[in-house]
Amino acid sequence: MYKSIIRPILFLFDPEKVHHFSFFLIKMLSRIGILGLIKPFFTIEDQRLEREVFGLKFKNPVGLAAGFDKNAMLYNELSSFGFGFVEIGTLTPKPQDGNPKKRLFRLKTDSAIINRMGFNNEGVFEAVERLKKEHMVLIGGNIGKNKITPNDDAIKDYLICFDALFEHVDYFVVNVSSPNTPGLRELQDKEPLTRLLKELEITNRKLASEKSVKRKPILLKIAPDLTNDQLLDIIAIVADTKIDGVIATNTTIERKNLKSHVLLLEENGGLSGKPLRDRSTEVIRFLSEKSNKAFPIIGVGGIHSPEDALEKLNAGADLIQLWTGFIYEGPILVKKINKTILKQKV
């Protein structure tokens, strides 16, 4: 019903407005109790789906990627669609509007999306207030820097977000790979990235000691546009800084072999969806093989079917995340993937 009736109607309207409408609708369905009634239709409860990764127990390996619930508004409600974990953000210390609209574009012919949102969010401290309520699902906190913060001062922004979120999320994701904040990807270079991750780990252990709790897992989200040499640097950086894993991958700036109208292809921003599938899988396989599976990988990019999910897992991903596939295929995709995993015993 989603692909035949609901999606065609939603796709008649501006993508960003549809996103806000969808949040309003999910919230209303939750308040009147309907979301709870339909939850069994989307979820599978089975111990065989559980995964223990970087010290956390996930009830299933399918998560919602960052960018969907930027401000931690509906993480519990979204878990009703069967996700094993939900990643909020990207969050920055200060609120920011992001890039001028229009900044979100559907490439329907390619089952893809171009976005240049620019870390639009209400700021980390607003999110913290929402995160104080009980969590029904594991939460990842995706953190970044404000646009106006120069790269030389970027570490301060990440530390502010880390400190604010420490008691409220289960793991952290360091986002230095979005193409929509000018200069951000320069932080992926070996020297600044190593310095950033080491500072975060120092703070991680300090906060854990002060609060008498375990340190929080730290993951690095990387771009699909890195060269093999740069990926080898990432492997070395993970070993050097002793962070817990990698998320592969963010959106791409490439526009190869697309069928959509040329005017859409000229839009700046990160491309996600089916065209990203092969490259993200290549990056996962490269990292897994070249590191001898030394660290966990969360695979994301172009997952629109259970077969796409299995491809990521077989390439070396320990967990996977959806974003564009969730929009194009609908929430039933989560259940389909989990059912297939059970059958394949991946």
UniProtKB/TrEMBL annotation:
<dbReference type="InterPro" id="IPR012135">
    <property type="entry name" value="Dihydroorotate_DH_1_2"/>
</dbReference>
<keyword id="KW-0665">Pyrimidine biosynthesis</keyword>
<feature type="binding site">
    <location>
        <position position="221"/>
    </location>
    <ligand>
        <name>FMN</name>
    </ligand>
</feature>
<comment type="similarity">
    <text>Belongs to the dihydroorotate dehydrogenase family. Type 2 subfamily.</text>
</comment>
<feature type="binding site">
    <location>
        <position position="90"/>
    </location>
    <ligand>
        <name>FMN</name>
    </ligand>
</feature>
<dbReference type="GO" id="GO:0006207">
    <property type="term" value="P:'de novo' pyrimidine nucleobase biosynthetic process"/>
</dbReference>
<feature type="binding site">
    <location>
        <position position="70"/>
    </location>
    <ligand>
        <name>substrate</name>
    </ligand>
</feature>
<dbReference type="InterPro" id="IPR013785">
    <property type="entry name" value="Aldolase_TIM"/>
</dbReference>
<feature type="binding site">
    <location>
        <position position="180"/>
    </location>
    <ligand>
        <name>substrate</name>
    </ligand>
</feature>
<feature type="binding site">
    <location>
        <begin position="250"/>
        <end position="251"/>
    </location>
    <ligand>
        <name>substrate</name>
    </ligand>
</feature>
<dbReference type="InterPro" id="IPR005719">
    <property type="entry name" value="Dihydroorotate_DH_2"/>
</dbReference>
<comment type="pathway">
    <text>Pyrimidine metabolism; UMP biosynthesis via de novo pathway; orotate from (S)-dihydroorotate (quinone route): step 1/1.</text>
</comment>
<dbReference type="GO" id="GO:0005737">
    <property type="term" value="C:cytoplasm"/>
</dbReference>
<dbReference type="InterPro" id="IPR050074">
    <property type="entry name" value="DHO_dehydrogenase"/>
</dbReference>
<feature type="binding site">
    <location>
        <position position="273"/>
    </location>
    <ligand>
        <name>FMN</name>
    </ligand>
</feature>
<comment type="function">
    <text>Catalyzes the conversion of dihydroorotate to orotate with quinone as electron acceptor.</text>
</comment>
<keyword id="KW-1003">Cell membrane</keyword>
<dbReference type="InterPro" id="IPR001295">
    <property type="entry name" value="Dihydroorotate_DH_CS"/>
</dbReference>
<feature type="binding site">
    <location>
        <begin position="66"/>
        <end position="70"/>
    </location>
    <ligand>
        <name>FMN</name>
    </ligand>
</feature>
<feature type="binding site">
    <location>
        <position position="302"/>
    </location>
    <ligand>
        <name>FMN</name>
    </ligand>
</feature>
<keyword id="KW-0560">Oxidoreductase</keyword>
<protein>
    <recommendedName>
        <fullName>Dihydroorotate dehydrogenase (quinone)</fullName>
        <ecNumber>1.3.5.2</ecNumber>
    </recommendedName>
</protein>
<dbReference type="GO" id="GO:0005886">
    <property type="term" value="C:plasma membrane"/>
</dbReference>
<dbReference type="Pfam" id="PF01180">
    <property type="entry name" value="DHO_dh"/>
</dbReference>
<feature type="binding site">
    <location>
        <position position="175"/>
    </location>
    <ligand>
        <name>FMN</name>
    </ligand>
</feature>
<dbReference type="InterPro" id="IPR005720">
    <property type="entry name" value="Dihydroorotate_DH_cat"/>
</dbReference>
<keyword id="KW-0285">Flavoprotein</keyword>
<keyword id="KW-0288">FMN</keyword>
<feature type="binding site">
    <location>
        <position position="175"/>
    </location>
    <ligand>
        <name>substrate</name>
    </ligand>
</feature>
<keyword id="KW-0472">Membrane</keyword>
<feature type="binding site">
    <location>
        <begin position="115"/>
        <end position="119"/>
    </location>
    <ligand>
        <name>substrate</name>
    </ligand>
</feature>
<feature type="active site" description="Nucleophile">
    <location>
        <position position="178"/>
    </location>
</feature>
<comment type="subunit">
    <text>Monomer.</text>
</comment>
<dbReference type="GO" id="GO:0044205">
    <property type="term" value="P:'de novo' UMP biosynthetic process"/>
</dbReference>
<feature type="binding site">
    <location>
        <position position="249"/>
    </location>
    <ligand>
        <name>FMN</name>
    </ligand>
</feature>
<dbReference type="GO" id="GO:0106430">
    <property type="term" value="F:dihydroorotate dehydrogenase (quinone) activity"/>
</dbReference>
<feature type="binding site">
    <location>
        <position position="142"/>
    </location>
    <ligand>
        <name>FMN</name>
    </ligand>
</feature>
